[in-house]
Amino acid sequence: MKTIAAPRAVREEIDRAKRGGATVGFVPTMGALHEGHASLVRLARARTGFVAASIFVNPKQFGAGEDLARYPRSLDRDAELLASLGVDLLFAPGERDLYSPRDRTRVFVEGLSNVLCGAARPGHFDGVVLVVAKLLNIVRPDEAYFGQKDAQQAVIVQRMAADLDIPVRIVIGATVREADGLAMSSRNAYLDADARRRASALYGAIAEAKRRVEAGERSAAPLAATMERRLLEAGFGVDYAAIVDGETLRPVEEIRGTVLIACAGALAGTRLIDNVALRVDGGAVEEVLLAFPEWSRYG
Ligand code: AMP
Questions:
Q1: What angle do CA 137, 13, 92 make, to 5 degrees?
Q2: Cα separations (Å) of 256 from 3, 129, 283?
Q3: Nearest-atom index, ligand 1, CA of 39
Q4: Does residue 299 lie within any of the structural domains?
C-alpha cells in the first residue's frame, strides 16, 4: 500500500491503475478506523480491482465548539489496518493539500442539508459535500462507498454526485454494530463505562420502532414519541427522534414507501446518531439501505 498526501500524485497512481485496466473503488474516512470502515473496504475490495481509501479529518465539517481538536487520530494504526485489508492506496492529505485561503467555491445541497443533523449542526453538510466533491474529483473512482450509519450524509452525497454529474457509482454499506446494538463510531471512544452502557438505548429505541412497524403500526407520531422518551430515560439530550421520507428527509405522518427512522442526541457530552431504513409496502416491511442508483446517470 502506498500512502500519498499530494492530490496530483494520487491522480498519477489512479491513472496508472486505470491504464492497467483496473476499476477503482474509493472509501473516504476521517480515520480512527473500526469495523464499520473495514466493512466498506471489504466491499470495495470485493467489487473493484484497485482500492483507494482516504483519511482526512475535515475541519470544514466541524462547527465552532465541536470536537475537531479532540477527534481521535491514529494514522499509523489505521494505515496498518488498511494495508492488511488489501488497500492499494491511502490518500492522507494535510489541510493545505486540499484547501487554500483563496478558495471561494461552496457546494450546498438544498433541502436535505438543513434538516435532522443539519439543523443541529449548521454548515456541517456543506463541509461534507465540499470535501467529498473534491475527493471524488481527485480520486475519480468508479465506485465510492458510504455507510448507512450516516444516512443523511449518504442521501446528500448521492444527490450531490447526481446533480454535479460526477461519474461515480455511490454504494451504501450496512451499519456495523457492537454486540448490544450500538452502531460503531469513532466517537464511541469518548464514552465512559456508564455512558457506554446507556448508549445502547439509541439502537434499542430505533429497533423498538422498527418492530412496531413490522407489527402493523403505520402512524409515525406515536413511534417518534416513544423513541424520544426512551432516549430521555437513558439520559440523552435529544436532537431529534424522527421518521422521515427516505428520499426527501421530510417528516412523514403515515409510514409507507421508503422511510428512515433516525435519532440523534448527546450522551455525557458525546453526540451519537443511528438509524434504520425500511421499505414498507402494504403489510410487507423490509430493512433496506438508502441507495438511489436511479438518481444518477452513472449509478
Ligand atoms: P467517518 O470516518 O466517520 O467519516 O466515516 C467514514 C465512512 O464510514 C462513512 O461513509 C461512514 O458512514 C462509514 N461508517 C462509519 N461508521 C460505520 C458503521 N458503524 N457501519 C458502517 N459504516 C460506517
A1: 65
A2: 46, 29, 10
A3: 21
A4: no
State how far the alpha carbon of 236 is from the alpha carbons of 52, 116, 117, 222, in Å.
37, 16, 15, 19
In a domain, 249, yes or no: yes
Question: Does residue 128 sit in the same domain as residue 59?
Answer: yes
The residue contributing the CA closest to ligand 1 atom 18 is 36
43 in any annotated domain = yes
* 172 and 284 together in one domain: no
Residues in the chain where the model's pLDDT stays below 50: none
Pocket of ligand 1 (CB under 6 A): 29-30, 36-37, 39-40, 146-147, 149-150, 173, 175-176, 183-186
Query: Using one digit for the tens of pLDDT, what is the confidence trace for 39-72?
Result: 999 999 999 999 999 999 999 999 999 999 999 9
Of 157, 176, 195, the residue at which a domain comes to its end is: 176
Q: Which domain holds residue 111?
A: 2-176
Q: Does residue 294 form part of some domain?
A: no
Q: Most distant CA pair in the chain: distance in Å? A: 57
CA of 5 relative to ligand 1 center, distance in Å:
21
The secondary structure of 206-232 as a DSSP string is: HHHHHHHHHTT--BHHHHHHHHHHHHH
